[in-house]
Amino acid sequence: MYPHGSRTSTPDAIGRELGRRLEAGYEVIYHDWSDRDVIRPESGDVLLGHPHPHPNTVFRNSLRQNGWRRRIMMAPFNHGDLRQIAFEDPIIPSCDLILAITGPYWFRTVKESRCSHWRPKMIHLDLAIDRGDFPPVKTSFAAPGERRVVYIGHSGSFKNTSHLSEIAALVPDAEFAWMGTGARPIPGLTALGQIDFASQSGKDLVSQFDFLLTVGNADANPTTILEAMAWGLIPICTPTSGYDGIPSIPNVPVDDAAAAAAVVRGLLFVNEPDLLAMQSANWRLLHDHYNWDRFAAQVAEAIESTESPHLGPESLKRRVMFTFYDITSPYGRLGRVASKFRRRYQTLRTLNRTSAERQFQKPSE
Q1: How far apart are CA 134 and CA 181, in angstroms?
Q2: CA 91 to each of CA 55, 56, 59, 64, 88: distance values in angstroms, whole numbers, following the listed order
Q3: CA 223, CA 346: separation in Å to the nearest integer?
């Protein structure tokens, strides 16, 4: 149960690339995570996939059925914003393992987080890309003082784009641009809109930049970091974008714009051989680790495993907290009710506007 369309971007790439590799050893039946049906297992069947926030969806419906050989949840994870994951807390006790698609920062700090009771069931699953979909476009870097920075993504709250604006304001001599769309603007960044990175014009545009900067405060592990590495750009990110402790992926603090700007400013003037060395190191990381064969091998190992650890202790206070975040999050029950109300309100406004326009429309002569 995972999106598995033809797009090269995640989440479709995850379901598609994993499914292709699992087909070499298993019969694989695909479902989208938002499907509303119920799967009733036959002997030896394994349930693998991403639960949807809505309770009446295929993973959650099927999880309750008896007869599964293994029940494995696979989903992005960060513990910085419980609104993203609180709905999973009552699901996890029924799962044998949790494959947490996340960066090293989030997994390393699980034990000190409000999700520490999940940790016994969790396996760290680093994301991957197909380098053929993101070929190198950056063979040399601009001269010091002429280098450019790009952010790729949306402007949702956990992307922390106000921090991007603060950093850009403190580095006024450099150009900062934004490829993507969102409900809110990102002041200080040149908006380039949605870009088709499969097109030659999209690749040519990417090649004009030297660095990708992403500063999420509760971002599991954005694929744009790996995509930038493949293109040859140097990614810069907050640890709370998932990646930290990797020399060729420089970190900036999530809560100190002046310190973050100092890191960016230093990279804008670093010697080109140092940038080329970082670029080469990133390409080795993609080749050796951030690839779909490694990703699928980890999943297959979980499928063949017999491990089903008990969860850690969860206090009543924590259980209540997860319930609160589940109910009040944009993905939770109140969020769904609010979303339904907004849709109906917009539909009603549109109908009223159309009716008024017809009422005052002059008859044709």
Answers
A1: 20
A2: 10, 13, 10, 10, 5
A3: 33
Phi and psi torsions of 148, nearest 5°: -125, 150
What tokens appear for 3 in the block?
A: 């999106």
Q: pLDDT confidence of 345, banded at 50, 70, 90?
A: low
Report the C-alpha gap between 188 and 200 in whole angstroms: 27
Per DSSP, what are the bridge partners of residue 251? 237
Q: Which of 6-10, 23-27, 106-110 has the lowest mean pLDDT?
A: 6-10
Closest CA to 247 of 287, 275, 273, 219: 275
Query: Each residue of 168-192: pLDDT tens digit?
Result: 999 999 999 999 998 889 999 999 9
Q: Which helix (H) or strand (E) holds 230?
A: helix 223-231
Burial (CB < 10 A; 0-12, 13-18, 19+), residue 362, is exposed
Q: 135 — phi, psi (to 5°)?
A: -70, 155
Q: What is the pLDDT of residues 143-154, one digit of tens each?
A: 998 999 999 999
Q: What percent of the chain has pLDDT over 70?
A: 90
Round to whole Å and give the CA distance between 243 and 282. Answer: 13
Instruction: Give dist(CA 75, CA 115) in Å, integer.
Output: 14
